[in-house]
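Section 3.1: Structural characterization of target chains.
Under the original work plan, the team committed to producing a structural model for every single-chain target entering the pipeline before any wet-lab resources were allocated. The record below documents one such target. The sequence was received from the expression subgroup and is listed exactly as submitted; it comprises 263 residues.
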Amino acid sequence: MAAERTGGPARPRTILAPNPSPLTLDGTRTHLVGRRRVAIVDPGPDLASHLAAIAAALGDAEVVAILVTHDHPDHAGAAPALARRTGAPVRAAAAGTLRPGDVVATDAGELAALATPGHTPDHVALHWPAADAIFVGDLMLGGLDTALVAPPEGDLTAYLDSLARVRALAARVLYPAHGEPFTDPPEAIDRYVRHRELRLEQVLRALDAEPAPAPLDRLVDAVYGPGLDARLREAAAGATLAYLEHLARAGRARLAAGGWQRA
């Protein structure tokens, strides 16, 4: 059964979808902003129990928009069914219906779309000035110091720029779609950037240790070690590739016959 937690007027109502996994943590958090005129942020996966929990929380409220931070099924899957049920429009960057600067009005304040690519090219965050808050989707994961950035969708250079864009808004709280809120955004963003910097150094050391161009699999082993959960290996390989591509743009690594090497 999905769980709902209700906060005060300056907090969203949050409904946890029953889709836990190593990448979704304890599940996708669907956030409801407003009481009478409501925006749904990340409707979550297309699961009957989750849809029922959202409908119960909405009651007879008017849904002004269904907002999707990015077009992954654990975030957007329930959007079509919710749109049919509520009559509300689905707003998503991937569909061209949510653009940077677009504003959605609720009875708890406005939500403004902010381009935050990196996890995916279409990723947007939603700034809620009335609550001094930002919904950050998968840009950050509550309780962790990293989030998945992996080609072909992920781009580490864009991701770091997006973290800087979120930092510049100086919000009081960040609401991720997975995990608990970040209540000290500057400290959390510092940790996220520091993690990336440390990983970049690990990738560079792994390249330095190779006498010849190294295949991606060997670099994954060097960076993540033998204790890597097999369920996360594909994600780790994608993340390592994102670091390599970021280093290549900076002129510090290059792809050669047989693998990657220092530039």
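The helical segments are 48-58, 73-76, 79-86, 156-168, 185-208, 216-224, 233-249.
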